[in-house]
Amino acid sequence: MSLYELSRACYDLRDEAARERFRSGPEAYAARYQLTAREREMLLKLDWKALAEAGVSIYVLTKLGAASNVEFLELEGAMRGMSKQEFVDFLKRQAEQNKAFTLGLD
Amino acid sequence: MAKIVAGMACSHAPSIAHAYDHGMTNDVGWKPLFTAFEKSQEWLESQKPDVLVVIYNDHVDQYFYDAWPTFSIGMAEQYDIPDEGLGARAFPPVPGHKELAAHIATSMVADGFDITASHRMSLDHGFLSPMPLLDDGWKIPVVPLTINVVMHPLPSPQRCWQMGEAVGRAIRSFPGDMRVVVFGTGGLSHQLTGPNCGRVTAEWDRKFMDMIESAPQELNSYTMADFARLGGEHSVEVVQWMAMRAALPPYARLERKFYYPFGMMGYGIMTFRVPD
Hints:
A: mainly alpha, Protocatechuate 4,5-dioxygenase, Chain A, 2 domains, B: alpha/beta, Protocatechuate 4,5-dioxygenase, Chain B, two-stranded antiparallel sheet, 10 strands
């Protein structure tokens, strides 16, 4: 049930009151869920890569990101071990390479 | 009887909602996509639809792991705007078309498709990122349907095709003169976790669009794992394009095809018209 609890802790941040509880006391917020020590650590440290590897859906990680004021591109960069800027640069290079596949532009 | 007059497939993404809400639609990077949506909005208006049937997927906003319907349909008078973590977007509730929804649900179950009925439902960015670009001000009532592309086990692409066929049969058996446009939202390629996070596979996206156009049933031999390998784990949303295409009669004709690989996504739009 642990992955469920970890996901639930992120999912519940859809509510502003929960986000305020999380921001004002992340440890107390986490204590409301049945997490292992390692899970609690990943959650409180916002270890995006580890959380994703543990099986937490990106769609609830974005809620944790929003509650923590972490930009999506920063969170996504962390998945590759990149800074936000490194990740943005990677995306720009990729877009350049993919340009030839563009279709139907006005 | 109700008539399906047109179909449209398009991407959905929080990034579209973000660009729209923050006045970025004319920025160099975003303009091609929003221009394509603008054209699609004019096209949609010219179809004079009475109802929009929108097949999309939820992203752990309406549904959670307690139970997740493989296929669901909204049965409500109106639909809520969810808080996905940043507060609810500033839209009024989306008006529903209860009669058509009830008819589709009943017909699908009678047809052997046991769909889950949702009498209260919020429509997350799977619906809410593209739809304000297509019907600003909610002039046209909707019937939302979802496919589970998030919580395993996922339905097979073939089952999603069959779902679209059942939706098509159900709409066409609705008594009364009604013009319906069917939508499928999601995709195209994107990968949001792991070592390939951010990867866009444009060549595959174009091939997928070609198949949706001219050989959609060939996609029935693909598995969700195939789609995940070719377009990224989170690109399996493309089954919603298949369901839309399956709801249209086989003689539907392509009207517009747009593809724009940008940022973390392959953004695509396809529109189809059903000749009289």
